[in-house]
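Input.
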Amino acid sequence: MRKECDDLKHFLAKHKTRLRLRQKSHALLEKHLSGESMDYRQIIALFIPILIDQAFIIGLNLVNTAMISSSGVAAVSAVNIVDSLNIFLINVFVAVATGGTVLVAQYKGSRNDRNVSRASAATVTSVSLLSVAIALLLIAFHQPMLNLLFGAASPEVLESARVYLIGSSISYTGLATVQAVCASLRGIGKTRASLFLSLIMNLLYVLLNVLFITLLDMGVFGMTLAVNIARYVGAGCALYYLFRVETSLHLQWRDLFQFPIEMLRKMLFIGIPFAAEQMFFNGGKLLTQVFIVSLGTYAIATNAIAGALAGVFQIPASALSLTIVTVVGQCIGGGNIRDARKFIKSFLWLGSIFLAALSLILMPFFYPLVHLFEPPTEIIGDIFLVLMVSLIAQLPLWPISFILPSALRAAGDSRFTSISSMLTMWLFRVIFGYVLGISFGLGILGVWLAMCCEWGVRGFIFLWRFRGEKWYAHKLI
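Output.
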């Protein structure tokens, strides 16, 4: 009898402890992540699918890089240098898609359902057409571009890069369609559907890479074939979902062929400065890649592997930078500046917390992770060093450098954020990167140190802007 009483007391004590913890968690979330525009449950419902999506995208990119590494250092170097060019160009139409997300989110916040639908259709049309134009230009001038940017690479690397570049260009329109549909869905808060579509495309990509690279040993050509099949299947699924499943938008196929000029103008007001920023920003990264190519194949591989690992540590923070576009966009659309400020501050703190937590969890597994890429023994120490520099610097600097500008852009403050990003990128990451990496002979470490300095300068500029009132003074809708 006494034992039963003790067991009951123990059970009640544990229940009370759990209840107190739940109440404290609820109070903390209410304080920092709830407002008049939305509460913490809605924000978590937006964030979780985006987090899973980012985890899959970055994790699958890690797996793909590891798989192509089995084809040799030349193959992984070729994929890495072409992907730096791919990122430069893809981010142009992704930037326009982000303009669509902001516009859709603000119309959603103002409860203008008709314009939500029109903005969604305009996003898909403009982004897809832009991707076709970029792809045609790249295919036409692929050889001069490779020679200009990466002529210092070995002939073996350049030939693999040529195959991968042409194949990647052909796949752009498939990717652009998926990105545009997902951007529209994020704008209305349907992040779960966006996750589903992204998973279809990326899981198919990995499965096809297993078939073409691992089983059939097709190397870079196999990766090119996989990316095309995956992206166009994903595009078909995305369009089917948008027009046949997502009934709340009431879209018809003919809506894709209408060009509401005023709607496009508003979307491009956000998208064009961001696209220009992405071109200059990623152009700077591309030029940095040129420095790295001159350092040799091992330096290219070090940068590629360290970059892939750094992306894993940034998964939750990257998800926050996407989530905040919908959150702040809807707050601004509803005219609630107080909520927008509150949520931005909370997201910045959350970003640093997530970065610290993942660093503590994953760094003990550095050696098992790095060996997924089968790197030469000589570069493992370099990979560890540049990754540690990045992890230490990103705790205070990454959120204000990446999450904060996403929030400012969601409020319509795209011009300021874009100009600031372009200037800091070229003055610090490119010029300072060349000075440290090449002139001072620090190599890859110098390039990464310059990148961290650029995060800090850019972040403090955005903090200064956020303290004022001009960032939310734009009238987008």
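The chain has one domain: 35-472.
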